[in-house]
């Protein structure tokens, strides 16, 4: 394994340990201090739940002036790596149970908190979707520089679109996405917004100039966090989580998410195998919106429905479907090294 770059990951240490220059306690608090993520665990099947004893290792990455929080699970002899990308109103630690699916249990698992969410900071004027894309793309390049193992992206919610865009602009070995809805389309904007009439704001947001675009509003004022899960209590937890739906985003972030076209038209996306595993009872982005984009992809694709599952799947039936589909996908395209 080659050494990489002048800014290595900084490993987290217990909060009771003395702070030393460059240590995680010097960089910032970790999920040992922010414990809201533990409340989500009760909604997952027992084998996928996290505790303080089996939580991912926490690391920090100095990226373009930001301290990016990264969850990592390294498994001895892992033949490949999975990089999990969250969506708007969630963060990396919320996806950690997916990394415990049997189909992924032998692979290294990496999940960043993208700029503005979780424990990762935000630029002075607020993050943009381009920041998310650049951060995820640079993380992929960093992991590829560490060794030659295959890198597979797992994009959940808006992270599915992000995974597609990353794969369109840098080389990865596979993409697994739960959602591929294109927010440039009016019908997609209507379901993404907290209220359908707010979709009309997309055009008005383009008229907002700096520094007014740096104005920040609660996430759940702008996007439909209430539909993040069909489990009402789970959705309420995400709505209130200050690192997720209860956090704040700038107008420029909202504008960029709604106005940024796919990095590559689907008709030209031909080199990377892609699996769409869409929850079939998604009340936020109905499957049809993803399928209309997915059906235009030129490259090798597979699709499956996650039965009985909402937007962020926690239901046992849907997770079983996801596990089976991921295992078949990795095997078919030889993505485990």
From TrEMBL:
Biased composition, class Low complexity, residue ranges: 12-25
Keyword annotations from UniProtKB, A to Z: Hydrolase
Name of the protein this chain belongs to: Alpha/beta fold hydrolase
Pfam family, any one: Abhydrolase_6
SUPFAM superfamilies: alpha/beta-Hydrolases
TM helices/strands, residue ranges: none
One GO molecular-function entry: hydrolase activity
Organism: Saccharopolyspora terrae
Domain AB hydrolase-1: 82-317
Cited Gene3D superfamilies: alpha/beta hydrolase (3.40.50.1820)
InterPro entries the UniProt entry points to: AB_hydrolase_1, AB_hydrolase_fold
Positions of the UniProt region annotated as Disordered: 1-28
């Amino acid at each position: 394994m080659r050494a990489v770059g002048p800014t290595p990951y900084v490993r987290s240490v217990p909060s009771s340990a003395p702070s030393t220059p460059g240590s995680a306690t010097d960089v910032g608090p970790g999920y040992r201090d922010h414990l809201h993520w533990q409340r989500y665990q009760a909604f997952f099947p027992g084998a996928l739940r996290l505790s303080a004893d089996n939580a991912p290792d926490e690391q920090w990455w100095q990226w373009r002036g930001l301290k990016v929080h990264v969850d990592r699970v390294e498994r001895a002899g892992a033949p490949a790596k999975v990089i999990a990308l969250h969506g708007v109103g969630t963060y990396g630690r919320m996806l950690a149970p997916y990394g415990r699916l049997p189909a992924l249990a032998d692979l290294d698992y990496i999940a960043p908190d993208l700029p503005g969410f979780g424990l990762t900071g935000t630029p002075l004027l607020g993050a943009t979707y381009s920041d998310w894309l650049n951060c995820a793309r640079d993380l992929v390049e960093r992991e590829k520089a560490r060794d030659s193992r295959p890198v597979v992206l797992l994009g959940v919610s808006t992270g599915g679109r992000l995974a597609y865009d990353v794969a369109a602009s840098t080389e990865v070995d596979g993409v697994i996405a739960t959602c591929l809805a294109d927010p440039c389309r009016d019908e997609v904007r209507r379901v993404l917004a907290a209220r359908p009439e707010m979709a009309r704001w997309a055009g008005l947001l383009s008229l907002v100039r700096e520094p007014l675009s740096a104005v920040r509003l609660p996430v759940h004022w702008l996007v439909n966090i209430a539909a993040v899960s069909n489990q009402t209590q789970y959705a309420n937890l995400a709505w209130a989580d200050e690192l997720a739906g209860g956090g704040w985003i700038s107008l420029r972030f909202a504008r960029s998410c709604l106005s940024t076209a796919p990095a590559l038209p689907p008709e030209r996306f031909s080199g990377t195998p892609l699996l769409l595993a869409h929850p079939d009872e998604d009340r936020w982005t109905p499957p049809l919106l993803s399928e209309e984009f997915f059906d235009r992809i030129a490259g090798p694709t597979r699709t499956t429905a996650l039965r009985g599952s909402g937007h962020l799947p926690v239901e046992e039936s849907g997770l079983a479907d996801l596990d089976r589909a991921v295992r078949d996908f990795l095997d078919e395209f030889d993505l485990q090294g």
